[in-house]
Design a protein that fits this description.
By secondary structure, the chain is of the alpha+beta class. It has nine helices and 14 strands. The structure holds (3R)-3-hydroxy-3-methyl-5-(phosphonooxy)pentanoic acid (PMV). The site of (3R)-3-hydroxy-3-methyl-5-(phosphonooxy)pentanoic acid has 15 residues, from helix 2 and helix 5.
Length: 328
Amino acid sequence: MREAIAAANSNIALAKYWGKRDEVLNLPYTGSISITLAGLTTTARVAFDSEHRSDRVAMNGELVVGAQAVAVRKFLDCVRQLADERTTAEVEVQTNFPVAAGLASSASTFAALALASATALGLSLPARQISVLARRGSGSASRSIFGGYVEWLAGEESDGSDSYAVPLAPADSWRLGIVIAITDLARKQVGSRQGMAHALKRSPFFPAWLETHEADLEAVRRGILERDLTLLGEAAEHNCLKMHAVSMASSPALLYWNPATVAVMRRVLQLREGGADAYFTIDAGPQVKIICPWTQREGIAAAIREVPGVQQVLLSEPGGPATLVEGL
Ligand code: PMV
């Protein structure tokens, strides 16, 4: 049996991907930049030559059916096509953090699946090609192939061959603290795929999002390379609020926040007024991720735990790339 196991970390976007120019290939209109998160990890075991007529997918011990199973099968079809293979696979995915609640479990899942399935089928692809493959599962997964600070280049080709992630700076080049406030543990209602498609079609602000994104990318990139947290944090917050404003202004409205999301945002602003270097960002869900200097993370986490409605606080930092592992 040809099998491989890989692990990949989730990531948070500081300049976000929101809008596809190609829905099948997951090609974005814009570039995006993220931090790969240590300790928020998905491990995927993929074994080909299964006895079953179709792929079998289990997540955290439960057989997956419906849209999620279809997404994994379609992804495996891409890998099979590359390797000129026809056999079905057994897939086992384990995630150590709340899935589908805006913590980018699809990013770590498809990054781990890309590395495991390509390896199992004997495709020895450079990391850039694994990133292209991961992108087919979920756009943000292209970034989770690399560790530290990562940029996904939008690319221009219609086949997506130049749309992959590249490392910007290694994880240990700048040890930021990352505090994650979980305000709702339930599965989110509108996934990022539907959310961005809706905003693209139904928000009058979408053109403004595209027009102003490059400046945010530039500021975020420079903030990372110059290790300037004020520059990085202000640009990331601005870009996050714009993404959510674009979505809220869709018709019908798309609102990812709950009262605790807003309370955490307010607390971060207050902490900043009190001298902390904390900045928030929010992806397609109600959780708030806060970046700050490593030395401030415990104090900030303690303050955030006190905010009414916060269910759980996780601590992270820039983490490593997707890797092959020995066992689940
Ligand atoms: O990769 P997807 O399809 O789950 O989309 C991710 C969208 C955001 O998380 C909101 C932004 C991003 O760049 O990760």
